[in-house]
Structure formats: C-alpha cells, structure tokens
Amino acid sequence: MDLALARVLVKAKKLDKWVPVRYLKKHDIERINLLQLEDEGLILTTHHEDAGILLKLTLKGYHRFKNL
After folding, report:
1. What torsion do the CA atoms of 58, 62, 65, 67 make, to the nearest 10 degrees?
2. Which residues is 12 bridged to in the sheet?
3. Distance (Å, rounded) from C-alpha 28 to C-alpha 11?
4. Is residue 2 helix, strand or coil?
C-alpha cells in the first residue's frame, strides 16, 4: 500500500472516521486490490448513497500500518 494512503487511513482510524474512495484517487487507489485487503482483514468497505464507497482500517490494519 502507498505510504501516503496508509497515513491517511491511519489518521482516519484515530478519528474513527470513514474515508471516501473518491478522495483517495490521487494516491493511486485504483492500483490497490481492495478486495484482497478486505479479505486479509485490514480494511472495511461500505457503500454510502451520497459518498459512494467508503474505507476504514480495521484494528488489525491499524496495527500493521501505524508505524509507517
């Protein structure tokens, strides 16, 4: 995962917020296989009517990426 993307997701986890995928386009979110990260238990994804797809780190993902 891109370092800047991991930092954004860690910051959002600290604030207990979901991050819309549309705001992560500049971090090449298209290259990352979100399904693989979700299967590994590192992120949660959900769909919101207005915001679209939302991402959030799980506790396992937070511990994996917090030191980057």
Report:
1. 180
2. none
3. 18
4. coil
The 3-class SS string of 48-62 reads: ECCCEEEEEECHHHH
* Encoded amino acid at 24, one letter: L
Over residues 41-61, the mean pLDDT reads: 93
pLDDT tier, 5 (very low <50, low <70, confident <90, very high otherwise): confident
Residue corresponding to tokens 């980057």: 68
29 pLDDT more than 90: no
Rg (C-alpha) for the chain, rounded Å, is: 11
